[in-house]
Amino acid sequence: MKKRLLVAFFCLYQKKCVPLHALIVGRIIKMKKVTVIMPNYNHAPFLKERLDSIFAQDYPNKEVIILDDASHDDSVSVLRQYARLPEVKSLIINEKNSGNTFRQWQRGMELATGDYIWIAESDDVAETTLLSSLVKALETNHAQLAFARSRFIDENGRDLPRKVDPVFRRSFAMNGKDFVANYMLGENTICNASAVLFRREASLRVDMHQVEQFPASGDRFFWISIALQGNIAFVAEDLNSFRQHGNKVSIKAAQDGRNFVQDHHIYRLISPRLSLSRRQQQKICGYQWQVIHLPWISDEGKKQAIEEWGKERYFTKWSWLIYKTNRIIPRLQSILCSI
Questions:
Q1: Which H or E element spans position 319?
Q2: Could you tell me if 177 and 280 are in contact, meaning their C-beta atoms sit under 8 angstroms apart?
Q3: Which residues contact 256 (CB under 8 A, 6 or more apart)?
Q4: DSSP 42
Q5: What local confidence, expressed as pLDDT, does residue 13 receive?
Q6: pLDDT confidence of 5, banded at 50, 70, 90?
Q7: How many other C-beta atoms lie within 10 A of the C-beta of residue 74?
Q8: Which candidate, 83, 103, 108, 72, places its Cα nearest to that of 247?
Q9: Among candidates 213, 161, 166, 212, which has minimal Cα distance to 189?
Q10: Distances in Å between the alpha carbon of 259 and those of 65, 184, 307, 311?
Q11: What is the pTM of this model?
Q12: Which of 78, 95, 298, 338 is most enclosed, with most CB atoms within 10 A?
C-alpha cells in the first residue's frame, strides 16, 4: 500500500499519469522504454504542435531523439527550445542534407536505447493515448509492430475526407505474412510512420542499406521486413493525424511515378516468400492498375509505372475489376448488417 501511495504522489508531483495497466497489486510493473525519433526537414510551421503532442503522451517511460536534416527555415530555433526538456536524449542538426529520409531513420535507431521505437514524423500530430495504446497492443498480441488508424488533416489541421475500409473499423491482430500478402503489396495500408510502434530488436534485423535503395517506398519495405518477423496488431482508433500539404515528398513521388516503380521492385523481392494465390496477385495488380491511371499522375510517371508493372501477367483491367469487386462486397455486407 505504501508503494502505491508513493507512486501516486510521484506521478502527481511530475504532473504525469501512469496508465492503469501499469499499476498492479501495489507495485508498478517495469514499463518498457519507448524511443521517440523525430526526423525533421523544413517543417517549422508544424513543429510546436508536433512536439507538444509528443511530450503530452500519457506513456511516461520514453526518450526523445530529434534530428534536423539541414533545414533552411526556422526549424532549428524551434527545436532548440524543446531540446532542454529532460526527456530529450539527443538533438542532432546536420550541416548538410543527408539526401535520404531513411538515413535519418537509421541514425535515430542507432542512438535508440528503448525497447520500442516510434518514428514521429515532424509534420503530424498524435493523440495523448497513442503510445500507451500501441504498447498495450504490441504486448497483448506479442506483435513485432502495432499501428493505429489515422485521420487525414490539411496544413491548417482541418479534417480531410477519407473512406475507411471495413477491415480497419475493428482492432485485430494477425500473422505478419498474411498481413503483408493481403494489405501491403497493393495498397500500403501503413500509410504513415507516425501511426506505428515497433520493437527495436526487430528493426535491427532489417537491412537499412536495402531500405535506402527505395527513397520513395522505403517505408513500405521497412514495415514489410518487420511484419514478416512475426505478428502485427492494429488499433481501430484515430490516434494519429496524418498531415497533407504541398511539400510532402510522397505526393511528388506518386505524381512522377517513382513510388510505383519502386513498389514493383519491392513486390518482386517479397512475393516469392509468400506463395501468393492467383486471386491475391490479381488484387495487388488490380489496385496498382487503378492508382497508376489516376488523373493527377503525370503522363511520364504513368508511362514509367505501366512499363514497370506491365511485366506482371495480372496487370490488366480485368484484375482491376476483380479488385473493385473485392472492395465493394465487404462494404455492401457492412451496410446490410447495419440495417
A1: helix 317-338
A2: no
A3: 298, 300, 301
A4: S
A5: 40
A6: very low
A7: 12
A8: 72
A9: 166
A10: 28, 14, 13, 16
A11: 0.88
A12: 78
Q: Which residues in 280-309 are b (16+ Cβ under 10 Å) and which e?
A: bbbbbbbbbbbebeeeebeeebbebbbebb
The amino acid present at 75, given as its one-letter code, is S
The residue-averaged pLDDT of 151-179 equals: 95
Residue 150 in grid coordinates: 489515422
DSSP class of residue 186 equals: S
- DSSP letter assigned to residue 278: H
d(CA 36, CA 39): 10
CA dist., res. 191 & res. 132, Å (int)? 21
User: Rounded distance, CA 64 to CA 37, Å?
Assistant: 6
Nearest CA-CA partner of 49 in 120, 112, 118, 109:
120
Task: Tell me the domains of the chain and their CATH numbers.
Answer: 31-245 (3.90.550.10), 274-338 (no CATH)
Q: What is the DSSP letter of 50?
A: H
pLDDT tier at 57 (50, 70, 90 boundaries)? Answer: very high
Residue 123: DSSP 8-state: T
